[in-house]
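Exercise 4. Each item below gives a protein and its sequence. For each, produce the structure-token representation.

Item: Outer membrane chaperone Skp (Hyphomonas oceanitis SCH89).
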Amino acid sequence: MSLFKHMLFALSLVVSAAAVTAPAASAQSATVVMIDEGRILSDSKAGKDIQTKLKNLETQMKNELEPTRATLETDGKALQAKVEGKTREAVAADTALVSQLTAYQNRANAFAQKRQTVSQEFQLTERAALIEFNKAIEPVLMEVVKEKNAQVVMSKSQVIYSSDAIDVSAAVISKLDAKTPTITVTRQRAPAQPAQ
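Answer:
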């Protein structure tokens, strides 16, 4: 699932929570407002801030892995050249080559584990940033709900048709920009894996 889809899903949970907390009213007399989560995320200062910080973190993480990846690629090609043309028995008989191949495989396995850990850390960081984003949106959304005297908040992604007049996304973005233009994005660390 893409970063944007994760963020939209998390934001839809805030909308659901706001809709549940709104007072119940009969369908005929209820004031309904709608928000466009994608627009809030892409157009708000806080949403843009999160996306920029996550992209920068992703680049930093890739840069951390690159030297090891490049070394493994170079060493892999060198070992491939040493093995090329030899039978399995000839390779097994060359103890120095077997030692090099074993060491290479161990480093490749360690790199795969590191890459998996970095990926997990990115997902944890993304989730933590979205939690902070949702915390910032909730009070702003409730302010708009009170201003509009709304009893129901709907997500634009869940509605087949609605009038633009009930879309309060711009008001939510405006208030969010004023109150929370940035979101702290702190790299989360994956729990240590037990040694095998």
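Check: Residues 33-179 form one domain.
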